[in-house]
C-alpha cells in the first residue's frame, strides 16, 4: 500500500512538473508559423462553448467613464467578456482589479483577459493616476525620447498587469482633437517615432496599437460627438504599411466615414463598420494579420447606428471596444452566431486570433 502511494505521488509530481515546464510564448511568436502554438490555439478554442467564443470579442471598460465594478463583476461571472479596458483610475485601483479578475478567471477555468489602457504619452498620466510622469507626445524632440517614454509607460503597465496598450496615435497633427496626442505633422517623424514606440512597447510583451485608422489627422470634427468624414484621398494610409511590416500587433479603427473615394467609399457609414475599410483595405490590401479593435462603440460617430455591434464584426473587426451594453451585445452576437454560418466563421477566426494573442502575452495564466 505504501509503495502504491509513493508511486501515485511520483506520477502526480511528474504531471505537475510537465505542466510547469509548458512553453510560454511571447509577442515575437504571434506572426510566426509555429505548429505547437497553432495546436494550442485550437485546443483552447475547441474547449470553449459558443457563449464563451463570442465573449472573447467583447471588451467593456471599467472606471468612471466605463461600467461600474458591480456590472463588470456580473459580466465576468457569466462569461460574457474576453477583456477589459481600465479607464481613468489610479494605478493601485487598476492593479487590484487585474489581480481580482485574474483570480476569478483562474478559479473558474476561464481564459485570461486582455487588459487594455489608453496609455498614450499625452494621456497616460490622466488616464492612470499616480503613473510615472512623462512628456506629452507633441513635445518630444527625438526618437530616443520617444523610446524612453514608451519604456517608462510599459514598466508601469507591467506593474499593473496591463498587456494591451491603445497607443501610439499615428495620425498627423492638424486635427485639434488628436493633434496634441500625435508625434507631429510630418511623415518622417510620425512614422519612425510611432514605430519606435511600438517596438519598445512590444519588447515588454505588451501589445501596441496604431490608431486611428484610416486617419484622423486631416478630418474636421470629433468622433466622440458625431460622424466625421475623410473627403477624398486617405492621406494618412501611408503611415501604416511600415508599421505593419515591422510587426505592430493591433490597429484601432476610427468612426470616420470616407467619401469620394471610388474604391473604399463607406457610403455614409463609419469605417469601423465598413467591410471596405476593415477587410478590403486593412486586411487584404495592407496585409494586416494582427488584432483589429474598434474605437469606443459608445461614441456618437457610431452608437446611433442600428445593429452597429453586428455590423462591426461583419466588417471584420476582432474586438468590440466599449459597446453601450456589453450583455446585450453578447446576446445579439450569439444569436447571429448560431443562425448564420458565414458570421460564425468570422467570429471563430477572430476568436482564434484573440486566443493566440493571449497565449503570446499571458500564457502562464491559461487553464491547464
TrEMBL record:
Annotated GO biological process: carbohydrate metabolic process; peptidoglycan turnover
Signal peptide residues on this chain, from the entry's feature table: 1-20
Domain Glycoside hydrolase family 3 N-terminal: 52-356
Pfam families on file: Glyco_hydro_3 (PF00933)
One GO MF term: beta-N-acetylhexosaminidase activity
Enzyme Commission number(s): 3.2.1.52
Broadest EC class assigned to this enzyme: hydrolase
Record's catalysed reaction(s): Hydrolysis of terminal non-reducing N-acetyl-D-hexosamine residues in N-acetyl-beta-D-hexosaminides
UniProt keyword list: Glycosidase, Hydrolase, Signal
Protein family per UniProt: Belongs to the glycosyl hydrolase 3 family.
Name of the protein: beta-N-acetylhexosaminidase
Organism in which the protein naturally occurs: Brumimicrobium aurantiacum
Source species taxonomy: Bacteria, Pseudomonadati, Bacteroidota, Flavobacteriia, Flavobacteriales
